[in-house]
Amino acid sequence: MAQSKSKWVQFSAFATVPLVLVLGNSMLVPVLPDMAKHMKLSELQSSLVITLFSVSAGLFIPFIGYLSDRMRRKAVIVPALALYGAAGIMAGMAAVWDSYPLLIAMRSVQGLAAAGTSPIAMALVGDMYKDGEESEALGLIEASNGAGKVISPIIGSLLGLWSWYAPFFAFPFFCAGSLIAVIFLIKEPKQKEKPLPFKKYIVEIKAIYAKNLAWLLTAYAAGALGLFILFGVLFYLSDMLEKPPYSIDGVAKGGLLAIPLLGLVLTAYTTGRLIKNKKKLMRKLMLIGLSVIVLSLSAAAIWHSNLIALISFVTISSIGTGLLLPCLNTMITGCAERAFRGTITSFYSSLRFLGVAAGPPLFSFIAGKSVTMLFIILVILSAASLWLVFRFIHPGAQTTNSG
Fold first, then answer.
1. pTM of the full predicted structure?
2. What total of structural domains would you count in the chain?
3. What b/e sequence results for 9-47 when a residue is b if at least 16 CB atoms lie within 10 Å of its CB, and e otherwise?
């Protein structure tokens, strides 16, 4: 009983890391229009506050993943969380001082720090747990990530009622809570072996990719596509809600956007608890999840002008994503030994970040041409991912290192 309690305490500490990762970005979205007004920024300039964060994180994740393979994971996560919060305070001061260059610089630093948080926490979960416990923890991390996306627009909107720059200063408090939880509640096992020499490490990494290239690239692409679609569709839905005849904004809009994300959270958590180390079940759930995405987006292509129908189909698509992501997380995290796990999972996390960053601008551009065409393109991409998963991901496809 005590061991089970200790496990859930550590699981809860792990869950705070993706939560603050999301809050540090998504909580700012509701105040971007006010920020642009007060700082006299163009739409492009204000969007860079979000985009540069994601791009910076995506670019630095592989490098920081490599560092985490060379040292203890917490030695990366703890300073990253501290820098994340400190840069958040400076970003808030830049907003108060009306200094856009400093604001952008600090958001880039926050992105760099974010690269050492949730992606490395995933690798640490793989170090500490196996089979059912690993998938359960990773499912909780994915659910926490989704929960952050549910509450962050609402928190951002509420804080924005007080002051448009209040979310910048609120975030470091959340970050401090996660930092304390990671330091005191997560007991990282000691590294049994010394890090390999750099040349030997590169040889081994190449060997892992040589053996697993087809299914790993398929898994990386499926994860990035899932988040690209999720965030792109939510961005389109957010824009649709603000325009006539709906004109829904603020907390009410955040509540409506929370509906699809709630579907993702509940499904991801349940999937993580179910799959354990059952590779056949993982493959089946990934195929079901992608099929659900294809069918729901096909329906959205037809009925996208009806708000209730669109929210319903987006929610169903999010449920499909909730089936897909925990399976991908577990397979990718478990495919390599501890000495290489940081790098293998970091490339996956990097593509997820870039998928999130690419969604809103590409959706905005394509929707400006034709909303129907937008959903047709998404259906084609999802169907292609479904075929690739069917073709390349199957029980026995995964091997570990080159030995």
1. 0.87
2. 1
3. ebbebbbbbbbbbbbbbbbbbbbbeebbeebebeeeebb
